[in-house]
Amino acid sequence: MRSPKSLLTTLLIVACHSREDSESARESGALSREPETNELPPPARSVGYPKRLCRRPPPMAGVRPPIVRLGSLQAPNEAPMNPLLEMGGGKWTLVDLWSMNCQPCIVEMPALKALEDKLAGRLRVVFLNVDDDPEPALSFLVAQPRTGVRGTYRFDDPARREDWFREIGVSATTLPAQIFLDGDGFVHCIANTSVQPGDLGEIDAMVGRAPQ
Predict the structure, then answer these.
(1) Whether 60 and 106 share a structural domain
(2) Which of 21, 34, 120, 209 is most exposed, with the fewest beta carbons within 10 Å of its own?
(3) Do 116 and 175 share a domain, yes or no?
(4) Same domain, 17 and 47
(5) What H or E segment, with its residue span, contains residue 71?
(6) Tens digit of pLDDT for each residue in 133-166?
(7) Which structural domain, as residue segments, surrounds residue 8?
């Protein structure tokens, strides 16, 4: 028959091993568990997407683009542009990425400007040139009519431009491209195609709804 002292020692050893096994199991589970839903980026707002433009939410849907100070190009006698990209405030924002090497980008610019005029108060259209050399874009803007697009944002530093695009899941290697930000300034969807007349009604419907 075991002495009380021997029995107590045995119980302590068993308890110690049980605790180690339990902690090991918890650590193993912590390493192998799947991310919980609430650890993923917040989903895009529950507002419809223009079907052809935004076939699916982007990987970074629901994020707010970092606030950055931008450079700008403007035709003479145009009002100075705010160096901080305006987002949110209850108004949707369409950031149009364009390049002088992208003919569809240039063709769609008047339609986007007209769309902004039509949806004033609900949508702002922001043009963001992605060319490294600003001179061709500036010459283009100077040649535009007074009612046309005569100003554009640009990144003076290409490395900062690429960092900003990476933050919101945008590739400027595929143009045309448009970034739709909802009225709270969050990425709603990203389109990698030119805007066609048939898309305008869906954009109108989209920005006419408050984010939910």
Answers:
(1) yes
(2) 34
(3) yes
(4) no
(5) strand 71-74
(6) 999 999 999 999 999 999 999 999 999 999 998 8
(7) 4-33
Asked whether residue 212 is domain-assigned, the answer is no
Which tokens belong to 88?
A: 């949110």
Q: How many domains does the chain have?
A: 2
Say how far apart CA 180 and CA 111 lie, in whole Å. Answer: 16
* Strand partners of residue 178: 96, 191
- Using alpha carbons, select from 136, 129, 89, 131 the residue that is nearest to residue 109: 129
Dihedral in degrees, nearest 10, Cα atoms 26, 27, 33, 39: 100
Structure confidence by residue, pLDDT tens digits, 105-128: 999 999 999 999 999 889 999 999
CB 89 within 8 Å of CB 186: no
SS3 178: strand
User: Taken in order 127, 128, 132, 134, is the CA torsion positive or negative?
Assistant: positive
